[in-house]
Amino acid sequence: MKIAQVTPLYEAVPPKLYGGTERVVAHLTDALVDLGHEVTLFASADAQTRARLIPVRDQAIRLDPAPLKSDLAAHMTMLGEVLDRVDQFDVIHFHTDMIHFPLFRPYADRTITTLHGRLDLKDLPGVYERWSDFGLISISDDQRRPLPHANWKATVHHGIPGDQYVFSPRSEGYLAFLGRISPEKRPDRAIEIATKLGRPLKMAAKVDAADKIYWEETIRPMVEANPLIEFIGEIGDHQKSAFLGGAEALLFPIDWPEPFGLVMIEAMACGTPVVAFRCGSTPEIIEDGATGFLVDTMEQAVAAADRARLLDREAIRARFELRFSAAAMARRYLDVYGDLLARRPFAEAPLADVVTPLRPLEDRSFAAIA
Q: Which among 34, 59, 98, 340 is least buried, having the fewest CB atoms inside 10 angstroms?
């Protein structure tokens, strides 16, 4: 199958430091190549990939030191490059929200769009109603709630390559927080949980410009006043195995409808249990009492973090390999691509006679294929 992957340009593929969407695209692209498909990646020139790379910008936007940049112009240039090659692909897989809809409407039947962010924004319903001919993929069933009538084709949970994360059979006795310092991620809850337990907490997180005031006025004073808290800052992929693998538990105390939460499966890949508030996608990712604990209150969170060390770390790793490997994600997407080709007229879909979809469903949620 000839597949195009079209990624956002904010981070490198994979990101050098923090970044979710571009990391998933990197893993998916390489896994599809490993499964024997001809994949083309449209991304910035600093991408590292086993696919054919079409570089559309000299480097990713966030770490580009240029003082004046236009993310809109960069993405429009990339879409133009894809449009110039549209006839080269059986499937064009977009990860760029809705920006491609007006340009690619004549080719909507050969596209799939994965939505990676939150969907409870005021202006979104009108967009997905106007361009309803574009098939959409959710990254969790919960993500769909604000747009239940959109043109959903499947839910495909994220996956990551297990060989990039080293299994750790035992912890070093600290709790971990990994992600962003922002109000919806609730790092204050993580600090409170660790403090009540008297356990060390290591925090590896980036501080975006938008969250600078929250960091300076709320979280930084909490960190500096508490000897149990160690703030490490932003880390890259090469540091995650040691950081997550050494943790007794990953604290995921979110206070927003998280569409997925990649850090949860990164922790599971290391054998580390996750203590997560029951919000957004967490009930779909965490198997309560097996790969971690789901909680609703701070009291429950403290108790869960205290007993997380009792969970079987080998079993956690095994569940990760079954449900959240990059290969598992790629195979689920191949089912989606097969459905897309099967619905196109025979003359327009030369591979339709050799691609057999798993099931010809209008909407395949993860629960339906698990």
A: 34
Distances (CA, A) of 345 to 109, 341, 363: 10, 8, 20
Q: State the Cα torsion 102-104-105-111 to the nearest 10°.
A: -130
pLDDT in tens, 132-185: 999 999 999 999 999 999 999 999 999 999 898 999 999 999 999 999 999 999
SS (HEC) of the chain? CEEEEECCCCCCCCCCCCCCHHHHHHHHHHHHHHCCCEEEEEECCCCCCCCEEEECCCCCCCCCCCCCCCHHHHHHHHHHHHHHCHHHCCEEEECCCCCCHHHHHHHHHHEEEEECCCCCCCCHHHHHHHCCCCEEEECCCHHHCCCCCCCEEEECCCCECHHHCCCCCCCCCEEEEEEECCHHHCHHHHHHHHHHHCCCEEEEEECCHHHHHHHHHHHHHHHHCCCCEEECCCCCHHHHHHHHHCEEEEEECCCCCCCCCHHHHHHHHCCCCEEEECCCCHHHHCCECCCEEEECCHHHHHHHHHHHHHCCHHHHHHHHHHHCEHHHHHHHHHHHHHHHHHHCCHHHCCCCCCCCCCCCCCCECHHHHC
Nearest to 149 by CA among 164, 130, 165: 130
Structure-token match 């133009």, residue found: 80
Q: Which two tokens stand for residue 129?
A: 């109603």
First to last CA, the chain: 24
pLDDT one-digit tens code per residue, 296-331 = 999 999 999 999 999 999 999 999 999 999 999 999
Name the nearest CA neighbour of 34 among 326, 262, 319, 354: 326
User: How many CA atoms lie less than 13 Å away from 351 in the CB half-sphere?
Assistant: 18
Q: Tell me the C-alpha distance between 281 and 20, whole Å.
A: 15
pLDDT tens per residue, range 56-109: 999 999 889 999 999 999 999 999 999 999 999 999 999 999 999 999 999 999
Query: Would residue 105 be called left, alpha or beta, if left means φ above 0 and alpha means ψ between -120 and 50 degrees?
Result: alpha
- Residue 332 pLDDT exceeds 80: yes
